[in-house]
Amino acid sequence: DGGITQSPKYLFRKEGQNVTLSCEQNLNHDAMYWYRQDPGQGLRLIYYSQIVNDFQKGDIAEGYSVSREKKESFPLTVTSAQKNPTAFYLCASSTGDSYNEQFFGPGTRLTVL
Amino acid sequence: EDQVTQSPEALRLQEGESSSLNCSYTVSGLRGLFWYRQDPGKGPEFLFTLYSAGEEKEKERLKATLTKKESFLHITAPKPEDSATYLCAVRKNSGYALNFGKGTSLLVTP
Question: Is A16 exposed, middle or buried (0-12, 13-18, 19+ CB in 10 A)?
Answer without folding.
Answer: exposed
